[in-house]
Amino acid sequence: xxxxxxxxxxxxxxxxxxxxxxxxxxxxxxxxxxxxxxxxxxxxxxxxxxxxxxxxxxxxxxxxxxxxxxxxxxxxxxxxxxxxxxxxxxxxxxxxxxxxxxxxxxxxxxxxxxxxxxxxxxxxxxxxxxxxxxxxxxxxxxxxxxxxxxxxxxxxxxxxxxxxxxxxxxxxxxxxxxxxxxxxxxxxxxxxxxxxxxxxxxxxxxxxxxxxxxxxxxxxxxxxxxxxxxxxxxxxxxxxxxxxxxxxxxxxxxxxxxxxxxxxxxxxxxxxxxxxxxxxxxxxxxxxxxxxxxxxxxxxxxxxxxxxxxxxxxxxxxxxxxxxxxxxxxxxxxxxxxxxxxxxxxxxxxxxxxxxxxxxxxxxxxxxxxxxxxxxxxxxxxxxxxxxxxxxxxxxxxxxxxxxxxxxxxxxxxxxxxxxxxxxxxxxxxxxxxxxxxxxxxxxxxxxxxxxxxxxxxxxxxxxx
Amino acid sequence: xxxxxxxxxxxxxxxxxxxxxxxxxxxxxxxxxxxxxxxxxxxxxxxxxxxxxxxxxxxxxxxxxxxxxxxxxxxxxxxxxxxxxxxxxxxxxxxxxxxxxxxxxxxxxxxxxxxxxxxxxxxxxxxxxxxxxxxxxxxxxxxxxxxxxxxxxxxxxxxxxxxxxxxxxxxxxxxxxxxxxxxxxxxxxxxxxxxxxxxxxxxxxx
Lengths: 465, 206
Known about the structure:
heterodimer; A: five-stranded parallel beta sheet; 15 helices; B: alpha/beta
């Protein structure tokens, strides 16, 4: 018998009942909620469905919260009712909520690992497509819709079809200036935004093993942009060192038991995957998107591609429409394109190491004239850590705005927007049309590349700074 | 949930790749509106000009496509955000079936929670459907039969599609999945008891 993949091992231990045709009723061992969950809680309460296991449920506020410095409960009054409704529903349901101003509040995909709520081997869901982020901890994690959130709340389970498995192996050493964000953008450029559809995607190889946990979370965050709603990295000593001592991580004897179990999870050497992709990391330079899909990506040293260079007429049309929307010319170098806005934040890249990297570049430099540059930490805890290290001062002295934790300008739900027609370099995960606000033009990149754009006023190769 | 069995309806071609759920429903609409009121906002940024008036060239603003119940689309329809409002807005507009070569995985699941049928067919087949629909100025109806798992073009050309039996059954009966799962209480409780013994550290977060 062939060996089992990490995915097989975690999936199998959560099967409550096989339902035929590849479907199973799966036990949910971690359910994370953000402020969009109030509707599901209310719906269930009115139907008389109790939350089945509040100990396995964690909630916070991130999408609708203001990120204005000095925010209060009343900032952005149009969202107060929504946030109050989340508070009320969590209280009625007995769901623990990490609210504005307290440690634990932040972007749900940042606080899960940070609190130790996200553990290796778990089957974790959340009503948000970037739930795949948590796979960086060595678990099966994926986004669900609002109806499925109701189902999980009421039954602590979910009906799911077992996906196929895919492995992307990244071997080699990262070149200077190349980060986890560049690895995943490069992969999406290679396989396309539907390349992972139908697969659970394991990231493996020496380059992945050498990534810190924060980089693994960044990597897994963009799995959904490759079409895979599930992406993960096998847990290892790096994972355990990150987790140990976190508020909700197992303690004492239980910790030892847990680690002993987690060590059995990685894919067996003879495990077989339905699809394999191999990437030579040494070839990867810092990446930046030029269009309106994450697959529209080039190295910062390259030129903007010509739609005529592809054969598929649908793809050609999509590329031309993207160039028109972005206000770019095929064949021009991407570097040197003037930038108006920079956003460092989101569940992709708002963790302490991201902010440290931006601050290291900002030290002794200034944000270019005409550029508005925001740094939005991913959580209250990260914000406090960064302030304790003096990073906020370094950034503000350079001309960046230092804001309060939340999703902010990644999806522009809370009113944080890039103005129409303005060009933004963003560390978030989607460069869709209008994603950062109607008419906004988004280029996705790593925090280092975003900081470089802020400091030079143009899309720039961070290695030249 | 509304059942889906058979449908013969106007089909609107929106043949773009990677139509993401942000395009289907803008994020601003997620704040206040209940699912049934989202119809006017489906594809909002394509349907209306900046001054709020209708964009006459957009397919869903043109007769007979205004009455479409089927959308014909290209690869990766519904990719991106998990927002179920994408399905709600299509449903409220009147759409009951989307035919595309592939779908965003979360959107695909969300469809089945709301009585909307996603049908995966090869791009060539969809392009033929589009050609027939357009040749009839949109009046030729596309028929979908979920019991037989077939799509029939306006000229009568029949193509079979594959769909998971469990999903098909749920749409045909309109059953409520939560109630169904609550009926498996014994299995869930037994699982939980065993899980607590096997992996006790997962339950120590209270």
